[in-house]
């Protein structure tokens, strides 16, 4: 078996990323790895129906794979916003009574709850003490809420650099209580700028972090968490998402 035949036998076993890496080794490897048979096989594994067409595509299967394959990791450019430029406005009501109202600077929200109070469940404590980017703030003084009451929340975000404001959550009701994670949750679909019409529905979530009060149907709220778990988890992703809101 010749050297070229050995390479062809090995290349047929590789996935797209490894096969593309082989193309960078030398001219001989590149010439063999560019054989469209390998890329047709890879396309057939990923998109079987495209190889069932009676006529071949107008471009090579290598070009098809290169065009449509999406890398799992994306590198974002530095965001145009900074948490130093932002402040968040939180208002929470039980029916007609305002129980929490705060203006929170971006860095304070990003700093989070550094020391969860005694009595917090382990799941919630591990979450708050984890290394992931979080936006949390303590509720001081703590608030006791009866779950029979209708509880709603609004969150606005303001830009200090332009004095503009955008809506994150507008009067959403806390209608889901997760007693395993000790969270009462509400959400709102974000309102994006008309300049970005093709962004899909993305939700902003807000959670009341609580402990059991000891009384039936009453929760002891010690913190609030805001997140965009549908689309943004890192600090940079959150800033990019906020940047495309409908700022007024």
From TrEMBL:
Any Pfam family matching the protein: F-box-like
Domain F-box: 1-42
InterPro entries found in the cross-reference section: At5g39250-like (IPR044207), F-box-like_dom_sf (IPR036047), F-box_dom (IPR001810)
Protein name in the entry: F-box domain-containing protein
Top-level taxonomy: Eukaryota, Viridiplantae, Streptophyta, Embryophyta, Tracheophyta
């Amino acid at each position: 078996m010749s050297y070229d035949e050995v390479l062809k036998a090995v290349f047929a076993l590789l996935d797209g990323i490894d096969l593309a890496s082989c193309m960078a080794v030398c001219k001989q490897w590149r010439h063999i790895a560019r054989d469209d048979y390998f890329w047709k096989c890879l396309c057939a594994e990923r998109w079987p129906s495209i190889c069932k067409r009676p006529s071949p595509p107008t471009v090579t299967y290598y070009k098809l794979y290169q065009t449509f394959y999406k890398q799992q990791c994306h590198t974002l450019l530095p965001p145009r916003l900074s948490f130093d430029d932002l402040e968040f406005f939180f208002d929470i009501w039980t029916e007609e009574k305002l129980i929490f109202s705060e203006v929170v600077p971006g860095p304070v929200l990003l700093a989070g709850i550094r020391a969860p109070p005694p009595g917090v469940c382990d799941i919630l404590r591990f979450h708050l003490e984890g290394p992931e980017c979080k936006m949390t703030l303590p509720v001081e003084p703590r608030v006791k809420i009866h779950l029979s009451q209708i509880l709603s929340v609004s969150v606005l975000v303001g830009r200090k650099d332009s004095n503009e404001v955008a809506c994150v959550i507008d009067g959403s009701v806390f209608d889901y209580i997760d007693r395993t994670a000790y969270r009462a949750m509400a959400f709102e679909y974000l309102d994006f700028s008309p300049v970005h019409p093709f962004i899909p529905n993305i939700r902003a979530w807000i959670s009341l972090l609580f402990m059991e009060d000891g009384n039936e149907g009453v929760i002891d709220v010690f913190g609030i968490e805001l997140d965009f778990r549908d689309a943004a988890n890192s600090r940079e992703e959150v800033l990019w998402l906020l940047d495309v809101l409908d700022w007024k």
